[in-house]
Model the fold of this input.
Amino acid sequence: MGALAAGVLEAGGRIVGVIPRFMQELEWGHGGLSELHVVEDMRARKHQMLARASAVVALPGGTGTLEELFEAMTLKRLGLFSGPIVLVNTAGYFSHLTRLLEAS
Done:
């Protein structure tokens, strides 16, 4: 995420970040963002990110990425998020997941 933000900023783009307070206190945030919103916890972070988003793009990541992706997918199925959801399937990272989802 940090490398993506740095690349966007270097190219003259704008990055808005949302970070839970405990991560900010641990200095896990990116210092050069265009805008940074510090929220109370991970739940508030997900809510704010989806409320501000017109689309969701999931890059290969860990359990946090998957948890946020499933939240977005659930809200989309419930009609509470209308934007597109895109999986960047680098090196087949999401292939097993897409097969699982297609089977259910």
Notes: The helical segments are 2-10, 21-25, 42-52, 63-77, 95-103. The chain has a mean pLDDT of 94.
